[in-house]
Write a structure and sequence with these properties.
Elements lengths: L1 H7 L6 H33 L9 E6 L3 H6 L7 H8 L6 E4 L1 E2 L3 E8 L4 E7 L2 E2 L20 E7 H15 L6 H6 L1 E7 L4 E12 L9 H11 L9 E5 L6 H9 L2 E3 L1 H45 L1 H9 L4 H38 L15 H32 L2
Parallel strand pairs: 7-9
Antiparallel strand pairs: 1-10, 1-11, 2-10, 3-6, 4-5, 4-8, 8-9
Length: 404
C-alpha cells in the first residue's frame, strides 16, 4: 500500500494546492462553527427569564390625539380590531392587557416602624407566555389572600435614584422589595376586598403592574360584575420585527408601539440576520474549498490516468486504487476540523468576557465549544468526507470502465 501511495501521490501533488484547500476550508468551517457557537452563547439573551432582547414582541396601543380626548372616544381595542390584527400574516401570537375594573389602594410599612407609604395604583394582567419573569411564586390560590405582583424594574430605579435620593430615604434592593408585605384594598362597584401583595419579580420589558390573569379575572367578576374589561394595549409576537408590513399596518390604523419594545425587537432581528449572513458566508467558503480539493484530485487522477489503468490491469481493484486519495482527504478534513475547533475556542475566550452581565452564566474559564457546535463540526466532517469518498470512487471507476 505504501508503494502504491508513492506511485500515485509521490511528488505529483501540488503542496500549494493542498495548503490552499486547508486554509480555505479552515476559514469556512471556523466561520460556520463560530456562528453556531455565538448563537448558542447569546441564546440566554433571548430566552432568559430576565431577557431584554426577547425577540419579536411589541406592545401596540391606539394613538391618542386631541380629538379623541374631546369626543371621549375609547382608546381600547374592539374584538373586531383584535381579530383583524390577529389574522395578519406577520402575527405569530397575540395577547392583550386585561385592566382591573376596580380601584387599588396600597400601603407598605407601618407607623410603628416609622415609615409608611400609601398610594393609589392599578393592576393589569397578561397571558403567562408573554411574561419575562420566571418564578414559582407566580400562582393564584382563590382560598388565599396572598397576591403575587410583578413590577417594572424602571419603577424601582425611579424610586432609588430619583425619589429616595431627593427625599433622603433609604434605597431598596430587589431582594428587600420581595420580602415586603403590601396591604391592598380593592374597591369595586359591589364589594371591597382586603389582600396582601408580595413582589415576586421585576420586569424589564412590561411597563405595568402585573398580577396573575386568574386573580384579575376573579376579582373583576366579584367586585365589578357589571363591567366588562376592554384591552387598551396588545402584545404582538412576530418572527420578523423588521417586517415593513408591521409598520405599514400600524400607520394605516393609527396604532403606536412602545419604543423600548420596538427597539429590542429590531435588535433581536438584526442579530438573527447577522448570524444568518455569517453562516451563509461560512457555508459558501466551505463549499468552494471542497470544490477546490475535488478539482485538484480530479486533475491528479486525470494526469495519471495511464498509471491508474496499468495498476487496474495488473490486478489492483478500483477501491484499492482510490484508497490513497481517500486517506489523503480524510487526513486533510480531520486537520481542518481540529484547526476550526481550536479557532472557535480561542474566539470564544475572547468574546465571552465582553458579554459582562448580559450573560451571567458564561465564564471565560469554560470556553469549550457547546455540544451543538461539536455535533455540527462532526456532521460537516462526515458529510465532506462522504462526498469526497463518493466523488473519488466514482472518478476511479469511470477511468476503469473507459479502459476496460
Amino acid at each position: 500500500m505504501n508503494r502504491l501511495l508513492n506511485k500515485l501521490l509521490g511528488r505529483h501533488i501540488n503542496a500549494w494546492q493542498l495548503a490552499g484547500f486547508v486554509l480555505a476550508n479552515l476559514c469556512g468551517m471556523a466561520i460556520v462553527l463560530a456562528a453556531v457557537q455565538l448563537a448558542s452563547d447569546i441564546k440566554p439573551l433571548f430566552e432568559g427569564s430576565d431577557s431584554f432582547l426577547r425577540p419579536g414582541q411589541v406592545v401596540v396601543t391606539k394613538r391618542v390625539n386631541s380629538l379623541g380626548t374631546l369626543t371621549g372616544a375609547s382608546p381600547a381595542f374592539t374584538e373586531k380590531e383584535i381579530g383583524r390584527l390577529r389574522r395578519q400574516p406577520f402575527v405569530k401570537n397575540l395577547g392583550q392587557y386585561t385592566p382591573a375594573m376596580f380601584s387599588v389602594f396600597a400601603t407598605i410599612g407601618s407607623q410603628s416602624m416609622g415609615m409608611e407609604f400609601s398610594t393609589e395604583m392599578f393592576f393589569e394582567a397578561v397571558p403567562d407566555t408573554f411574561i419575562d419573569v420566571t418564578t414559582e411564586r407566580w400562582t393564584y390560590d382563590p382560598e388565599s389572600d396572598e397576591v403575587p405582583i410583578i413590577l417594572p424594574r424602571a419603577y424601582l430605579n425611579l424610586y432609588n435614584f430619583g425619589f429616595a435620593s431627593s427625599q433622603g430615604l433609604p434605597t431598596i434592593s430587589e431582594k428587600l422589595a420581595g420580602k415586603a408585605n403590601v396591604r391592598l384594598r380593592l374597591t369595586g362597584t359591589h364589594d371591597v376586598k382586603l389582600k396582601t401583595g408580595h413582589v415576586v419579580g421585576f420586569s424589564r420589558r412590561l411597563n405595568t403592574i402585573l398580577v396573575p390573569q386568574a386573580f384579575l379575572d376573579d376579582m373583576n367578576r366579584q367586585l365589578s360584575p357589571g363591567r366588562q374589561p376592554q384591552a387598551a394595549r396588545l402584545i404582538v409576537e412576530t418572527d420578523n420585527p423588521a417586517d415593513e408590513r408591521i409598520a405599514r399596518y400600524l400607520s394605516e390604523n393609527n396604532y403606536d408601539t412602545e419604543a423600548a419594545d420596538a427597539d429590542a425587537s429590531k435588535t433581536a432581528g438584526l442579530l438573527r440576520i447577522v448570524i444568518t449572513v455569517v453562516l451563509a458566508v461560512g457555508i459558501i467558503i466551505s463549499a468552494l474549498a471542497f470544490y477546490v480539493l475535488l478539482l485538484s484530485i480530479f486533475l491528479l487522477l486525470q494526469k495519471h490516468t495511464e498509471k491508474i489503468d496499468n495498476l487496474l490491469l495488473i490486478g489492483y481493484t478500483p477501491a484499492r486504487v482510490a484508497r490513497p486519495f481517500h486517506l489523503l482527504t480524510i487526513a486533510l478534513n480531520a486537520l481542518v476540523l481540529v484547526g476550526a475547533l481550536v479557532l472557535v475556542i480561542a474566539l470564544r475566550a475572547w468574546y465571552l468576557p465582553l458579554f459582562g452581565d448580559l450573560a451571567p452564566h458564561s465564564s471565560p474559564f469554560t470556553t469549550h465549544p457547546s455540544p451543538l457546535t461539536l455535533l455540527i463540526a462532526l456532521a460537516i466532517f462526515l458529510l465532506v468526507s462522504a462526498l469526497n469518498y463518493m466523488a473519488i470512487t466514482g472518478k476511479v471507476r469511470t477511468i476503469w470502465h473507459i479502459h476496460e
